[in-house]
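From: lab user (bench 3)
To: helpdesk
Subject: output format question, protein + (R)-mevalonate

Hello, I'm new to running complex predictions and I'm not sure whether the block I got back is the full result or only part of it. Here's what I submitted:
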Amino acid sequence: MSGDTGGAAEAAAEAEEDAPLGRGFGHGKVILIGEHAVVHGHAALAAGISTGIAVEARAGRTPGETRLRVPAWNLEASVGDGTPVGRALEAIVRRIEAPGLDFVADARIPSRAGLGSSAAMSVAIARAAAAAVGRADATDAIDAAVMAAEEVFHGSPSGIDAAAAKSGVTGRFTRATGWQPVPVLQKITICVGLSGRPRDTAAQVAAVGRLRDRLPAAGEVLALLGRLADDGGAALAKGDVDGLGRIMDAAHGLLAALRLSSPELETLVHAARAAGAVGAKLTGAGGGGAVIALAPGHARDVLARWRAAGYEGFLADIVAAPAGGPAAAIGGAPR
Ligand code: MEV
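Helpdesk reply: Thanks, we reran it on our side. This is the complete output you should expect:
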């Protein structure tokens, strides 16, 4: 055997040894209408985006140690380190029964921006862990693992982020009915603007809960947001982009009434409208995070205006999904 062949065989053996035992992917998401309302039992309309987080699981180098590395976020955590990420990791691998793995995540969405990064990460890790131990179809265990991790990050989440991260399509969600894909008549491009200020979902959800206890009208605002989510679904089904924009504007006003906006989010919303958007609103928990805008024919103008004001943004497409047809898919990556 020549030295070259021996070297190639050795390299192949090394590559095989380094091959992941399992892979998993979780989608990022935007909530179109109904954030916070969904926590209180009302409907929300959300879309998984094609960009998200991919995770590879390999056998751990140190026996029994479970580690996670996310180079894009400069983040490392391990089970037992006492951090929220370490505790979420523990919650996942305990439910999947997959200890002693090394996870590396390729994160293509920003963290803590209201784009469902924690749910996307949990889904990707749970799927990679399950694949690594030959349980890729253990959907109940994967679902339980993702919810347990989401509870570590967000207290008592509605489950909409996890559902969107798993599905990657446009859907209607309530706590009672879960996730149902919705029809979308025509492709719609959404502008996503990043405030640069991290949001804290658990704190924002708790604040809305306190407001609702003190101000009964806040409960009515949440119910109205749920109704707007269904109006938004009807607009998507008809391809009524202007109508959806008006609904998004109304939803933003109601979310601001619940004290969920911020100076940065207001700047982004008003800049989008000035650049030609037919509707714009905060998305996700609020207080920071991201806004979304609908600006047919002016999407690039919105991104340019945001950039001029010092904010980054990107485009994501909700593609058409006929009623009763294959589920909607969404495209788009940070640009
Ligand atoms: C966070 O993306 C959405 C909220 O409605 C919280 C939840 O539903 O768990 C604010």
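A quick orientation on your result: The longest strand covers residues 44-59. Let us know if anything else is unclear.
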